[in-house]
Specification:
By secondary structure, this protein is mainly alpha-helical. The protein is built from 1 helix and 2 strands, in the order αββ. It has one domain. The radius of gyration is 31 Å and the shape is elongated.
């Protein structure tokens, strides 16, 4: 044989190609660290989405309550009766009542997931009554902004 001819590469003692146990352990450790770092970010994003939905739902219901109030003030709807237009048709201010996104009980009706404030109750102890002027979340938590959901 000539001195320039190369010899075949040596065979591995434990068989042909593949990863060693150490390489697999290191890869799994790196993936585990990445997953652990990603979980809080995903949880925060889920909370942000729910808070955004809560803001939108509260805005929608409060706008409907305000529209109803304006209609009664303008005399278009008689007080203490169903909302009817001049032709006797029922007037709807909401298509549906949305669910509170932070209420975990699926058995409750959407209307039962909200608290209602009436003029009959004091500001620090809201309660339902005949003249509901506001709605609020019954969720016990606090938002990302530090304000309890009940005060939104």
């Amino acid at each position: 044989m000539s001195p320039l001819a190369s010899s075949p590469p040596p065979l591995r003692a434990h068989g042909a190609g593949g990863f060693t146990l150490l390489e697999l352990v290191i890869a799994i450790a790196i993936l585990s660290i990445l997953v652990v770092m990603a979980v809080p970010v995903v949880q925060l994003e889920i909370q942000r989405q729910k808070e955004s939905e809560l803001r939108q739902d509260l805005r929608e219901m409060r706008n409907a309550i305000d529209a109803y109030k304006h209609a009664t003030d303008d005399g278009r709807i008689p007080r203490k009766t169903d909302a009817k237009d001049a032709k006797g048709r029922t007037i709807y201010f909401l298509r549906r009542i949305p669910r509170d996104p932070f209420n975990p009980d699926p058995a409750l009706d959407a209307a039962q997931t909200w608290g209602k404030r009436s003029y009959e109750s004091p500001p620090d102890a809201p309660a339902e009554g005949d003249d509901v002027f506001d709605v609020y979340s019954l969720a016990p938590g606090t938002g990302i902004n530090g304000v309890p959901y009940r005060q939104w």
